[in-house]
Design a protein that fits this description.
Length: about 220
C-alpha cells in the first residue's frame, strides 16, 4: 500500500504549521507491528442540537482503493455518498452504532458517544486487533486503541469511518425533517445554523432535540 496518495484538487489542511494528509501511514505502522486487522473509527453529531450521535468503525483491508477518501467535512455531499457506497461494498468490514437523543440527555453527550462507538465495535464482523480513533479513547473496549489528533485528516481508515457515519446520520436527519418540519433539519442536519436557532425560539424543541442543552444554553429553547 502506498503511504501517500495525493488528493486531486484539494489543498491539504494545516494544523500547528504542518500539512495534514490522509494516508495509510498509521495502518502501515500497525502492520509492521504484526497487526493485520486495523480499523478506523469516528463519530458524527456530537455538536448538534438534536438527533443522534452516530459512530462507524471500518476495516478497509488490503488493496482497498482510497482514491478521494478524506475527512468527511472536506467533501461534498455527492462525494460522500459515492465514497460511502464504495466503502460499504468493498471494505473488509464495517459497522455503525447509534445513541439516540434520549440516551444523550440521560448519559451526557460524551458518554453517549462512547456508547455509540461501543455498539459499532460490537457489531463488527471481523474482530480488529487495533482501532485507530479520531482523538478519543473509548472506555470498556478490550481491543487496543490508538487515539490520533486530527485523525480523520490523517488516516484513511478513520476518514472512511467519518464518511460512512456522516452519510448515515444525514439520511436519518432528512427523515426527521419530514417528521419534524420547520427546523430545516434536511439541510442543517440538526446543527446550530441561524434558521435552526430561529425555529427553536419560535416553535420550541421537538421530541428529538437534546434537552440537556437547556441547562447551559437556555436561549436555544
Amino acid at each position: 500500500m502506498a503511504s501517500e496518495r495525493p488528493r486531486r484538487g484539494r489543498k491539504p489542511l494545516v494544523y500547528d504549521g504542518e500539512e495534514l494528509r490522509c494516508t495509510w501511514r498509521f495502518e502501515e505502522e500497525a502492520r509492521a507491528e504484526g497487526r493485520l486487522a486495523v480499523a478506523g473509527m469516528d463519530e458524527v453529531g456530537r455538536g448538534a442540537l438534536c438527533g443522534p450521535v452516530v459512530a462507524c468503525v471500518v476495516i478497509l483491508g488490503d488493496g482497498f482503493d482510497t482514491e478521494g477518501i478524506d475527512d468527511s467535512k472536506r467533501l461534498t455531499a455527492l462525494q460522500r455518498e459515492a465514497l460511502s457506497a464504495r466503502i460499504r461494498e468493498k471494505a473488509r468490514a464495517f459497522s455503525v452504532g447509534v445513541a439516540d437523543p434520549k440516551e444523550i440527555d440521560r448519559l451526557n453527550i460524551l458518554r453517549a458517544t462512547y456508547v455509540a462507538m461501543q455498539r459499532a465495535i460490537a457489531g463488527l464482523a471481523v474482530p480488529p486487533d487495533l482501532i485507530l480513533v479520531d482523538a478519543l479513547e473509548v472506555p470498556d473496549v478490550a481491543v487496543k486503541q490508538r487515539p490520533i489528533v486530527k485523525g480523520d485528516a490523517l488516516s484513511v481508515s478513520i476518514a472512511a469511518a467519518s464518511v460512512v457515519a456522516k452519510v448515515e446520520r444525514d439520511a436519518m436527519m432528512r427523515e426527521y425533517d419530514q417528521r419534524y418540519p420547520g427546523y430545516g433539519l434536511g439541510h442543517n442536519m440538526g446543527y446550530a445554523a441561524d434558521d435552526h436557532r430561529e425555529a427553536l425560539r419560535r416553535m420550541g424543541p421537538s421530541e428529538i432535540h437534546r434537552r440537556s442543552f437547556h441547562g447551559t444554553q437556555r436561549w436555544l429553547f
